[in-house]
Amino acid sequence: MSFEKLGIDKKFILGLHDMKIETPTEIQKKIIPLLIGDPVDIIGQAETGTGKTAAFGLPLLSRVDSNDYSVQGLILCPTRELGKQVAKQLFKYTKYSDKIFTEAVYGGEYIERQMSALSRPTHIVVATPGRLIDLVEKKAVDLSGVKTVILDEADEMLSMGFKKQLDTILNFLPNVECKWLFSATMPNGIKEIISTHLSPDAEYIKVNQDNFVNKKIKHQYLICDDNNKLNILLQFLKTEHKNRGIIFCKTKAATKKLAKQLIAKNVSTDAIHGDLLQKERDKVMRAFKGEKIQILVSTDVAARGIDVEGLSYVVHYQLPESNEYYLHRSGRTARAGKEGVSLALINQSEVRTIRNYERTLRIGFKQVRERD
After folding, report:
1. Which conformational region is residue 323 in: left (phi greater than 0), alpha (psi within -120 to 50 degrees), or beta?
2. Tens of pLDDT along 19-78?
3. Which of 155, 297, 298, 359 is a good FRET partner for 138, with 20 to 30 A between their CA atoms?
């Protein structure tokens, strides 16, 4: 099955070709034909890394009239990182098409700068909910022409406390024809949004776990005492030579501490966490993407919405809070068809968590030892 057979215009396929995207993923095969046709509401249950940005992004671009400079599409995202990534992907898809202008707006950035950007022709707005409401209240953006609204990672927006804002936004879109909701899980709050705001006839598409687990990732775990974990990590990094990767911690304090310890050992690294200002976070990400630093130490904020090419490994220095976050973290490696390693450094009591991952996520782990 090709993108052309799914109904995608050749001008967008050329953009995909430049990104080395040739074959549709499972969710793209299931959802694109539905969204390309008549206006429809859909619910897509799918994880990060399944290709859902293209699954909704390509049909959205197909619906935009490039000669009409009003905002026609709205994409709501939980984090600024995801919002920026989605906007960047849409820009890449349109490399060979008529100009379709996308603007990303989010908190942590000067609102005046975003108001100025929105005064230019804008076809699609990608936004975090709180910042979008601020912009609407300041009359900096007119959403009356929005025909398609997309909720990306809706469960994450709910867990971040955006339920009230989502209800507000969905209530002040008068001319919407299509509502597309994507969520990894279906908690009660998401079911409430669906029953309140989506059509009773909304199509429900679920991508099976087996179809979205990246088979190119080698999942490994190493059992060690907590007080020996840093030495084990340094041994692992030495075997990786100049390969690049992300090391995840569960807390901001642990992230800061580990980054300082690695820097003291002359490891080329920096940290990203919730205490950083937006400009500081952007500076670290530019350095990492530009290969000025080799390793990023991060809290789970970087597990969503950050797409850095060529990462060879992910290390779970501390296990995450949930199964979903394990998948989000691991999915930072083995991108674009390449192989990668996801290594968990655990103590003996955490072996049961690894067994839980194996059972619920249907992935196999290999135990490695220090001499490996």
Report:
1. alpha
2. 888 899 888 999 999 999 899 999 998 766 678 899 999 999 999 999 999 999 999 999
3. 155
